[in-house]
Amino acid sequence: MKSLLNKIDSKLSFERASAHCDVPCGIYDPISAQIAALTVVRMVDLLLDQEKGEGANIEVRNKMARLVANKEEHAEKAKHEIRIIWGDFIKPAHVEKYPQIHGLVHSIMALGSEAKQHVSREVAVELVDKINEFAEIFWEIKGQETVKAPAPYAPNLDLVYRKI
Amino acid sequence: MKSLLNKIDSKLSFERASAHCDVPCGIYDPISAQIAALTVVRMVDLLLDQEKGEGANIEVRNKMARLVANKEEHAEKAKHEIRIIWGDFIKPAHVEKYPQIHGLVHSIMALGSEAKQHVSREVAVELVDKINEFAEIFWEIKGQETVKAPAPYAPNLDLVYRKI
Amino acid sequence: MKSLLNKIDSKLSFERASAHCDVPCGIYDPISAQIAALTVVRMVDLLLDQEKGEGANIEVRNKMARLVANKEEHAEKAKHEIRIIWGDFIKPAHVEKYPQIHGLVHSIMALGSEAKQHVSREVAVELVDKINEFAEIFWEIKGQETVKAPAPYAPNLDLVYRKI
Amino acid sequence: MKSLLNKIDSKLSFERASAHCDVPCGIYDPISAQIAALTVVRMVDLLLDQEKGEGANIEVRNKMARLVANKEEHAEKAKHEIRIIWGDFIKPAHVEKYPQIHGLVHSIMALGSEAKQHVSREVAVELVDKINEFAEIFWEIKGQETVKAPAPYAPNLDLVYRKI
Amino acid sequence: MKSLLNKIDSKLSFERASAHCDVPCGIYDPISAQIAALTVVRMVDLLLDQEKGEGANIEVRNKMARLVANKEEHAEKAKHEIRIIWGDFIKPAHVEKYPQIHGLVHSIMALGSEAKQHVSREVAVELVDKINEFAEIFWEIKGQETVKAPAPYAPNLDLVYRKI
Amino acid sequence: MKSLLNKIDSKLSFERASAHCDVPCGIYDPISAQIAALTVVRMVDLLLDQEKGEGANIEVRNKMARLVANKEEHAEKAKHEIRIIWGDFIKPAHVEKYPQIHGLVHSIMALGSEAKQHVSREVAVELVDKINEFAEIFWEIKGQETVKAPAPYAPNLDLVYRKI
User: Given pLDDT bands bounded at 50, 70 and 90, which one contains residue B5?
Assistant: First the structure.
């Protein structure tokens, strides 16, 4: 009986508590994923800058190795943060209202991997865009208004912020 | 032009290389997620055993703290492994053929979190089942036959194995 | 000669690039530390809720073990994020202008540890306050206006946000 | 008295429970180490492919940095997984029956480090071989038959599988 | 030819460079493992202190959860550090001279796990002892004298230090 | 009242227990940070050796990637260990007696990042020096004599050791 109720609960409940740490604690915020994706773009920009330098120089090599590792880490972080919100906060009822959300998250995962595999500004910017799209849906579900504004650090791409 | 080709590629390609580490290296195997999910069931069984013991005893407390931490870790691992295969190996063309896959992965994420939040054998077994279902689709895509057989360690639940 | 220039540079430079990942990439944002500290408060609230329940129950134990672990993790995260901004972004010239900053960061470290060691709402809230104080200085250095507003999730404590 | 019994127990017991996570949960499976070692071979193959490309190109550099990092990670994983089974599952009584096991594990550790230090297919393949040897002993102890069959992904080297 | 030389090298070389980070960088030092093992004893002492307190109290629970987690972490660290020195620094020629070393390391792994599984001062102290024994052999190989002296922090057990 | 006492306690107490793992367990030892900083110097030396080799060779690339990653890891470790002792062991009363300590720790953080960002022996050696300075203060607070002696592994720089 309890398990039946649990199932009904997990199928229907729209307002069940939710959290960025799956406690659930209810503290979900896409800003972490957005900053991580922006960092990926920044790493690509810095890598493309290095490309012009002389390749065999040890300082250049040290820098490139670090830039690639940081690109890797932040692309992974962006994917992980979105997976958490999607897996823990988004309930079947949300999926009904936003049927595109599964495909959107799937494309964020693929873009995150592509951003790791290449040094492509286009891919990295698309990752930011898709995560912005996700943020917009998220805040709409939470009943919060959003605003698009440039980030206060390079690259000053537009992020979807919750209106404060 | 190159980026256009890239896009066509990522939309159409069915057989693009893929990997459990997003290199991509092509070495995807759901067995890691399956063993992790089975471990969650095992932790639940051991926790329910402990429950009968006297709660204030320090040995029991040490054991329970460790069982919960391990349940946590393996539920996370199961989710992470499935996310990688889904995000890196599953392409849009696969989604067309297996339209249920997004919902299946979403439910694995939710079950993984529920398995962390509770000490429920039912939830943990359902996690194993859903991951088995995922494994079956995965091996079918890879053109490999599967067989259902009990795991060689407790809990000896059936896992979907690739037929060797 | 180069090393002399380097030293002068590190002593005088006020506007040297800076980063949340020490690349340096220039993407510093105290919001991560603020959300982490808020999460610590949330964990404390949930732990105090649990306290009223019956202690030996296995579901309660599972929950408490997870709440403590998450409190731990987020207190550490808050400390780590502040250490990075302090160590990488804050230059000697900033310290001259904000002589209290070393003591402030030191107290954040101590509060972070106290928040781990106890289940004290007072300590956790003080951690949020001190990190807000740090955020205010940070955004002032960056020439950005700030606004104090409640977080959009429980516990809805005031955070110092950059004005968008 | 209890401690004396404990010592006798740890000296004589052959069938004491054992686990891949030292709970112990009893879920030991060398397949994780085998897949990790196979991944090391794959990384070496991909690195040797890259070598032919033009070295200064930024896409090649990004790829090589990632391949080296993944080689590192999986060599470490292979070592770690074997250490766990050896340290937690293998008891003194097993060592008596398989006196070569200490030396075998020691050589796996050394090979894992060599595989990190070099880009050598020979070393990586030897790592797979030695771990296969370990897997064979492991399954024999567990009373399970094994079969040697090619892995279902490149590089399709033979792995020692438990017969299902 | 080169691979043949490599093999001869790995079989015979006694003085090959070695490292705590498998670079190899040559910086091996058992002190990290010794401090970690000492910390395990400390955690056990603090846990046994807690046992006398009232079990349901939330402050006690928070403390015990943290003590168990730290015991776990430092037991793992002790095992990991010893595995690195054993796997990377100890060569076949050393094993000939110290034939007991494989068994010693194996017992350290088993004791590390036992120290996790229980709250036993006896097991934890035995872990310190065995690691001291390992440190003695290590410094003898390095041609350094050692001295046994109490650690400068509780529990002030004797550690085998290199004579400075 | 209790919170007032807590505050007085944290302001005045000089001898409050303290720990390298913030339990607090009281086991603080700067040797870990010192070994980590020494390892950074070693990585720089090995990197500068590699620079002379031919850059496009895959073995050289593998080695350089690993050296940079290890330099990164150990510089981070050095920073982290010092942050812990500073944040958890150093109390306001110590700061009064050693008013330079905040600035010293701040410079260790900056040097740690510079050591990551460059391949500079001068920076790496300065990191060792500053951490030695910190170790000297630490042991003085603990009432322990120190001695300066060369490390028993390359680079054999002087470390500040506790006199045994």
Answer: very low
Tell me the C-alpha distance between B42 and B40, whole Å.
5
Burial B80-91 (b: 16+ CB within 10 A, else e): ebbbbbbbbbbb
Note whether D23 contacts B46, CB cutoff 8 Å: yes
Q: Which residues of A touch D58 (CB under 8 A)?
A: 47-48, 50-51, 119
Q: Encode pLDDT of A12-30 as tens digits.
A: 333 233 335 688 889 999 9
Nearest chain C CA: its distance from E43 CA (Å): 14
Chain D and chain F share a number of CB contacts under 8 A equal to: 29
CB < 8 Å to B62, chain C = none
Query: Is residue E18 scored above 60 in pLDDT?
Result: no
What residues in chain D have per-residue pLDDT under 50? 1-19
Compute the distance between CA of residue A100 and CA of residue A105 in angstroms, rounded to an integer: 9
Q: Which residue of D has its CA nearest to B156?
A: D27
> How many angstroms separate the CA atoms of E124 and E70, rounded?
13
DSSP codes of every residue in B75-121: HHHHHHHHHHIIIII--HHHHHH-TTHHHHHHHHHHHHHHHHH---H
Contacts of residue E43, defined as CB under 8 A and 6 or more positions apart, other chains included, come to E67, E68, E70, E71, E74, E124, F23, F25
User: Whose CA is closest to D61, among B68, B152, A117?
Assistant: A117
Helix (H, G, I), strand (E, B) or coil at C94: helix
Select the residue of F59, F65, F69 nearest D118 (Cβ to Cβ).
Answer: F59
**Given CB atoms, is F93 within the 8 Å cutoff of chain A?**
no
Q: What is d(CA C118, CA A120) in angstroms, rounded to the nearest whole number?
A: 47
Q: How far is E46 from chain B (nearest CA, A)?
A: 12
Nearest residue of chain B to residue D63 (CA atoms): B23
Q: Which residues does chain D have within 8 Å of residue A40's beta carbon, measured at their own beta carbons? A: none
CB A93 within 8 A of CB A13: yes
Facing residues of F161 across strands? Answer: F147
Instruction: Residue D4: count other Cβ atoms within 10 Å of its Cβ.
Output: 8
Distance CA D86, CA E103 (A): 11
Residue C109 CA from chain centroid, whole number: 9
ipTM of the complex: 0.87
**C26 torsion bin: left (phi>0), alpha (psi -120 to 50), beta (else):** left
Contacts with D, B 139-158, CB within 8 Å:
142, 144, 147, 149, 151-154
Q: How many CB atoms lie within 10 A of CB A32?
A: 22
Q: What is the pLDDT of residues C14-48, one digit of tens each?
A: 323 333 568 888 999 999 999 999 999 999 999 99
Touching partners of A (3+ C-beta pairs < 8 Å):
B, C, D, F
Nearest-by-Cβ selection for E87 from D87, D106, D117:
D106
Touching chains, F (3+ CB pairs < 8 A): A, C, D, E
Helix (H, G, I), strand (E, B) or coil at D106: helix
Mean of the per-residue pLDDT values for chain A? 89
Distance between CA D20 and CA F59 in Å, rounded?
34
- In this structure, which amino acid lies at residue F123? V
| Cβ pair B153:D67 closer than 8 A | no
Q: Which of residues 27-86 of A touch B (CB under 8 A)?
A: 79, 83, 86
Q: Which of E57, E60, E62, E73 to probe the C interface (max C CBs under 10 A)? A: E62
Structure pTM?
0.89
- C65-87 confidence digits (pLDDT tens): 999 999 999 999 999 999 999 99
The 10 Å CB-count burial string (b at 16+, else e) for B35-70 is bbbbbbbbbbbbbeebbeeebeebeebbbbbbbbbb
Q: Distance between CA B55 and CA E111 in Å, rounded? A: 26
